[in-house]
Design a protein that fits this description.
The complex is a heterotrimer of chains A (299), B (431) and C (275). Chain B has 431 residues and is an alpha/beta fold. Chain B is built from 20 helices and 12 strands. The radius of gyration of chain B is 24 Å and the shape is globular. Chain C is globular and about 70 Å long. The C terminus of chain C is likely disordered. The chains are: A mainly alpha (299), B alpha/beta (431), C mainly alpha (275). At the A-C interface, helix 1, helix 2, helix 4, helix 5 and helix 6 of A face helix 1, helix 3, helix 4, helix 5 and helix 7 of C.
Chain lengths: 299, 431, 275
Amino acid sequence: MTKRRLVDKPSYWGFLFVLPWLLGFLVFTAGPMLTSLYLSFTKYDLNTIQFVGTKNYHRLFYEEPLFWKSLQVTITYAIFSVPLGISASLGLAILLNQKVRGQRVFRTLFYLPSLVPAVASSLLWIWIFNPDYGLLNYALSLFGIGGAEWLMDEKYTLGAFIVMSLWGAGGGRMIIFLAGLQGISDTYYEAARLDGASHWQQFRFITIPQLSPVIFFNLILGIIGAFQVFTTAYIMTGGGPNNATLFYALSIFRNAFEYFKLGKASAMAWVLFVILLIITAVQFWGSKRWVYYEGEAKS
Amino acid sequence: MLRGAVIRWGLALMGLAILVGCKSPDDGKVHLRYMAWGNVEQLALEQQLVDSFNRQNPDLHVELFKVPQSAYKNKMILMFASRTSPDVVRVDHYDFPQLAERNYFHELDEFIQGDLEFKLSDFFPAAVEECKVNGKMQGLNVLFGGGIMFYNKKLLNEAGLDDPFELYKKGEWTYAKMREYAIKTTKYDKSGRAQQFGVNMATMPFYFATIQAFGGRFLNETLDKCLLDSPEAIEAMQFLSDLRWKDKCCPTPAQGANSAFAFETGKLALEFNYVGASARYRQMITKFEWDICPLPDGPKGNSLFVKGNQLIMYKETQHPKEAWRLMKFLTGPEAEQVLYVRERRQSPSRIALAFSDAYLHPKTPPFNMESVSMTVKEGTKLPIGPRWPEVMQVAGSELDNLFAGREKNAAESMKSTTAAVNKLLGEEPGF
Amino acid sequence: MKKLRDLPTYVVLIAFSSLFLVPFLWTVSTALHDNQDVFKFPPEWIPKPPHWENFPKAWTALPFTNWVLNTLFITVITTTAAVLTSSLVAYGFSRFKFKGRNAMFYTMLATMMLPGQVTMIPVFMIWRWLGAIDTFYPLIIPSFFGGGAFNIFLMRQFFLTIPREFDEAAMLDGASHFKIWWRVLLPLSGPVLATVAVMSFISHWDEFNGPLIYLNSPEKYTVSVGLRMFQDSYGSDMNQLMAASLIHILPTIVLFFCAQRYFMKGINLSGLGGR
């Protein structure tokens, strides 16, 4: 009882610590967000603003096949890239957490791909996916497998983007997992080994639960990130071929900064906002069953 | 301990504030801001011109904002929309009508009429026409040019073909001839891998030129109806598609990706491009001779077209008179001498200079500069209106099916393109 | 005996390393090529002769040294600010109960869900109103307000895994809340602090859009803006772009390599007992 009074007592201290964020939010974020919400009910061509009610939304839902297409592209991408990416990052993190010599070098090598700037790495991938003299088809041909026109055939382009996203599996997400693995005390594993637990059992009953807050973080942020993919599509395919890589964020960008339809772009952004809000809320609700916090403030 | 840290940070922050705080220089001069895009060399040229202007005008100081081309429009839009635009901005003509419709540009007629040194009749009519919005001048043309063709003399000689520029002078440089040249200069090795190609694909806006030569058009006069489904346009597009998929003398998107058959590699005989590319070619091409000629003639006329860029004055500039002096300088004789005669970035927009001895007879390639001067003199203006970016996104995405070989029948492709563009043009703008 | 047991681990490590390394090596290879030979087939991994001069040529083609200093200045300040303030805010969110906490926390998450493109103009207007266009302020100041939702959320997740017994022990010793944050939580969070620092450093080091829109004077540019100048519509100088990119990422590679000392310092339970 004493403990709880000491730590969990409602206090202005918490508010004080959160204050920097709150100030920043009020000054730099809240206004622009509300502005864009308002703009989504207007026709704003970057010169004049005209209130049009829900017309932007109505047109998106009922008269804009490209809106549904870009939503479909983005959701498909997220469904594949997020679970694959998270598993790959976790696997790599566990691999890099093995106590063998030279890990510093290996970690750096694994992280390298995320360091290459997007301009350079996009050019790199255009070359890798080139059907005639790209690395991928060349490597496949060594195994006697016929390649494909990766970025030019609408059947494969999205797949190519998912493969590309995996190349970054050794990036930030893996580092976060690695940091999370550091927090798991060796005593758990030692005890488990004494009880004769297998590697899989250790992974399943110690690593996963102990890492669950971090997995949860990567899942939430992974989905948000997947829904906002922009740069690679903008540079590499421009949304083609045949709109097969018309990612949602690319579509928003075009409407806003190429067609000057800020109202429509804002409406699209708020539709995405609501979708992400629902997905995230569901995840938070579900997280109570599987995410385990050691130091949670219990109410 | 922590308080100490907080105080230290506070001091550091204040120091930072002093360090980066922008102090506006008070030197008694009028400060102008000018924004342009370019690669390393182009921006160095612009800086030279600005420096020269600053030397000649001690009462003014111009600062050049150098912006990478790939992100230029994004930055420009933000500056216009937030009313923080530089006083003088270079605008690509593809974006010019769209931006003009939003009232961002200052009308220039008052300056032009009040300036005895400045005569619109000095300029090519098409260069003036591009700058007009509802009959009023809202820009001055810079980097004005037209589509031309580069050719690799070595590859044509090896195939025993006559010089295309000589053919042009005899009136024999036609699309049929070009196709023959392209087929004869294309080579595959025994395994079927391409070694060299005859011609590159006519990308936007070059396929409009081909359509024009076959007697078709992309849009009608009022820019509200697509005319690509006419038999002439279909014939032209079928011709281009066949170069790639039937004659196989033009690299496919896969073969052409990563500049594998770029002109400067010496593995492409004929290339649709602008003379602006020649700056790069002079620097990079060491292993073969090359030159330029006009675009070929078609069954129903020539395929000459022009496309420029505009210098505009920001509507809310504080210094319109000074901005006009800068604009006049940047389109004036000294700048045109540097940009076009010396560096051949594009064609001069002044008729006299484009036909001057210095421009027509340079000491370095390309030598057939008359091709450029003829093109800008006779070329037609592209049908660019305020909705151009949208129109081209829709049309480009449809036409891509033809060029990428997913649809090999031009009639089918033109039908769907026309329908898509007309649907877009029929919709209420802005949604 | 131990070495033999590690063998499979090494095999897998080396296999993955080469997978990640091959494309990187291509970048190096491209940087060493003559621009005309960049796309030879079959690919020529080590060009003859290697054009080492591409590196100094690319670097001096533009005032990169000036731009590196700008980038470094911005990055160091933002990274420090992000680490400190995000941990402070996360401490508030994870260790205290107060009115509106959950509402604020979920609002913070929600700020990440609206694509930045539609708030770009209003945000720009705020900085314009503050008179901060063409200064480093818009690139630096936001980091002082919690360092972004991503970092706060990440820190919070980690703080929640640290048992509260540590705070409580310190509190019984009479430590203030600030002291608990500084003396208990931060020392226990080495890996996540290093993670936030490295990720924040790299994202600011590569940041393109902010410098593009807020900086006008060329002497204030950052490296990422300069890198784009190697591309234009008549073709890109691939070799120079790659050479400059490699010089650009070199500091981040070194930083990452060195930062690993901190990644690996996790909770040391036995050491804490003595505090």
